[in-house]
Amino acid sequence: MQGKVTRSADNVTFIGIDVSKGRLDVALAPAGVTFAVTNDKKGHKTLLKKLIGLDVGVIVLEATGKYHRGVHLFLHEKGLPVCVVNPYRSRKFADALGELAKTDKIDAKVLARYGEFIGPGAQIPVSKTLSELAEILNTRDSAIRARTALRNRLAAANSSLVLQLLAIGVFINSLAFVPFGMVQSAGRPDLTAKLHMLELPIYLLLLWFLLNTYGIVGAAIAWVVRAAIDTILLFVMSHRLLSAVSSLTMRSIFMIGIAFLVLAVAALISGVVIKGLFLLLVLFIFAVMVWFVILEPDEKNLICTRIKAVTS
Q: In whole angstroms, what is the distance from residue 199 CA to residue 257 CA?
């Protein structure tokens, strides 16, 4: 139980101790004497010797994790009244005294005057077992907070990765429209339906495995893999069905390879402005290649005729 110290004799000494890992800064009030000892068993014994003959009102320590526990228990076992105060309360008391500076010696003096003016009651130290249990619980809480922060960062990274994978999948899926149109024009729409039916069980197994292994990222990977396989098989079908346009198929494959190369280079470039200029250059080169590589002469003539009709 914590009570009030009611003694007011002139010879009563109030002691403040600022605790750090390896040092104890000690101040006596109202005498104003200060000294320091080490924060170990030898230093604790030295502190006790210096307190012999004093009429100790209360010894005030500031809670500093586990570093104050040893001296608290030692002084309590020697029959001295010890109080542990919250650092926030001692800091507010220092502000009230006008002590804006903060050093170990000043903090010890503030704690001594806290004992002199506030008169806090002595506190029984927590047992070693309870102290260790509290330390374990604090460590557990810190680990849980760190785990939560890591999970949040991982979720943000996974979201970015999923968007990147979906962007790649959309790009690959858009390429499939070229051979898909060729197969449809050959009068064999049944082939694409059969292809998708055959892919479905394989895709579901792959989706189940990757989803259980990598979560939402695995689902995105499964869809990208299916889109890539679908595109490749459609190109193979269109090449075999339409031998007359096999050159167009090969040119389309060539353009796809160039597109993937452009994506790889764009990923290596840093800076939004540089990326934008690079993409404009790529669009210009793409337009030139479509004109000279993909389009047939009659298609070029048709485009030129339409442009003249619009501009005239």
A: 24
Q: pLDDT tens, 117-166?
A: 888 888 877 766 777 787 788 888 888 888 888 877 777 767 777 887 88
Whether 127 contacts 73, CB under 8 Å: no
Co-location of 285 and 248 in the same domain? no
pLDDT, one tens digit per residue, over 63-115 is 887 788 888 888 988 889 999 988 888 888 888 888 777 888 888 999 999 88
Is 19 within 8 Å of 39 (Cβ atoms)? yes
Tokens 């806090």 found at: 120
- Rounded to whole angstroms, the Cα distance separating 172 from 170 reads 5
CA atoms within 13 A on the CB side of 8: 3
Report phi then psi at 82, rounded to 5. -125, 135
Are residues 242 and 305 both part of a single domain?
no
Q: Helix, strand or coil for residue 34?
A: strand
Range of the domain at 299: 270-312
Round to whole Å and give the CA distance between 136 and 167.
46
For 169-183, the pLDDT digits (tens) are: 887 888 788 788 878
**What DSSP string describes 128-191?**
HHHHHHHHHHHHHHHHHHHHHHHHHHHHHHHHHHHHHHHHHHHHHHHHTHHHHHHHHHTT-HHH
Contacts 24+ apart (CB under 8 A), 278-281: none
